[in-house]
Amino acid sequence: MGSLARPGCGVLAATSLAALIGGALAHSAVTSAAAVQRAASKARPTLLTWNKVPVCLEASTAQSRNQGDNGLDWKSPQRTLTTSTGVVSLRFRDDETAVVLGDQPIPIGADAQGKPVILGDYSVIVRAFPDCDAPDYVFIAPAAQDRVVARRWFLDGRRPAADDSGVVEFPGHYGADTVVSVRDGVLSVSSGAADGDETTYQYHGSPVRAFVHKSAPPKYVAVLGKPNDDFYGSAAAAETTLKTAGQETFDLLRARTSVGKTKLFRGRYLIVEGSERGDFQRHGAVVIDTVNDAAFFIVCDDAAVYTGALVASSHARAATLERLGDDVLAAFRFAGLTLSFDESANLVCDGECHDER
Questions:
Q1: pLDDT of residue 162
Q2: 20 to 30 A Cα–Cα from 27, which one of 43, 275, 281, 292?
Q3: What whole-number distance in Å separates Cα of residue 333 and Cα of residue 2?
Q4: Which stretches of the chain drop beneath a pLDDT of 70?
Q5: Rounded to whole angstroms, how far apart are CA atoms 299 and 241?
Q6: Residue 297: beta bridge partners?
Q7: In whole angstroms, how large is the CA radius of gyration of the chain?
Q8: Is 341 within 8 Å of 316 (Cβ atoms)?
């Protein structure tokens, strides 16, 4: 009787095994289909107008400090936003709404006394793309911002916590006409289409970590944040500067800016600025409008005048000056140089070239 039962158990076991295998295959097929669907979804372009980008955190300093969070008047239900970089939150600090990452306020510079300036405002709004639950990118701006002086910030939510987790300043503006999109893994932020003057910045992650004007050629993007020698060593990137300055002045610029790293101003102007190796008083700067491929330069010597005396400088065409003059001077000011264009469109010191070095 026992022997008669074994075949039945074997049939039952085989049947169960077949069912189990069939179920596993079905589950595998469903899982694979879901994975393919997710991959296809990621491959598709994602586009959101600014008012569709989710607001995750919004708070302002309250009139009374009896409010929650030590004096914040919350306008959003959430108190934190979790990213790969760390947990983003808003805290009351020095009568402002400070943006905090991983329990640490985010520094965005230093004041004249060297004290860190913390990212914050009286009213701050934090949006996430594509959503608040799993944000790839985080946009930070004053909620009731002054369109002229407000600074807008960006945090790459995909960066590992061990990596440099600082924010980068966004060179454009966030507003009703802003469109955020991801296509082929590239984040783009556009504004100004309604005015017929659309400007698009594309985010370049590690190691550049900057928003760059869409029309900037790859030859300039490749040298961003690199030692100045990398710029001069790139025939493509340095070609316009060589053509503008001539070989002799180009070699002088290369020597006078040998110490330093390239910077980017307003997502468009490449700055190559620094000093001669071993001689801080001999320095220079190059500003390149990457969109129009136009180069401007100065060579400065502080030996006789501590506030700078120009040894050589560039000349601008009238048409170029009319379009770019103010922005070029602002880029030089960003590099610490106070310059102007004279009546002949030559770069000259505006009083003193810079503060004492």
A1: 54
A2: 43
A3: 96
A4: 1-44, 63-69, 144-149, 160-165, 194, 196
A5: 13
A6: 286
A7: 28
A8: yes
Helix (H, G, I), strand (E, B), or coil: what is residue 283?
strand
- All structural domains of the chain with their residue ranges: 47-214, 220-349
Please state the pTM of the whole predicted model: 0.80
CA-to-CA separations, 198 to 172, 181, 190, in angstroms, rounded: 11, 14, 7
Q: Which residue has the tokens 């783009």?
A: 188
* 276, amino acid identity: E
CA pair distance 121, 105, nearest whole angstrom? 13
Q: What is the dihedral of CA 165, 166, 172, 174, to 10 degrees?
A: 70
Could you tell me if 327 and 171 are in contact, meaning their C-beta atoms sit under 8 angstroms apart?
Answer: no
Task: Provide, rounded to the nearest whole percent, the portion of the chain with pLDDT above 70.
Answer: 81
Q: Which residues pair with 330 in a beta bridge?
A: none
298's tokens: 């100065």
**DSSP reduced 3-state for 193:** helix
Given this model, what pLDDT does residue 26 score?
A: 45
**Burial (CB count within 10 angstroms: exposed 0-12, middle 13-18, buried 19+), residue 234:** middle
Separation between Cα atoms, residue 82 and residue 62, nearest integer Å: 25
> H helices within the chain, ranges in order?
2-43, 68-71, 218-221, 228-233, 235-245, 247-256, 318-334
DSSP 204: E
With beta carbons less than 8 A apart as the criterion, state whether 167 and 108 touch.
yes
Sign (positive or negative) of CA dihedral 261, 263, 269, 275 = negative
User: Which tokens hold the place of 212?
Assistant: 């760059």
Other Cβ atoms closer than 10 A to 332:
26
To the nearest 10°, report the CA torsion of 37, 200, 230, 334. -140
Q: Report the distance separating Cα 276 and Cα 282, nearest Å.
A: 6
Spatial separation of the C-alpha atoms in residues 187 and 130, rounded to whole Å: 11
Tokens for 266, please give them. Answer: 């307003």
The model's pLDDT over 23-58, given as tens digits with 9 standing for 90+, comes to 444 444 433 443 444 344 455 578 999 999 999 999
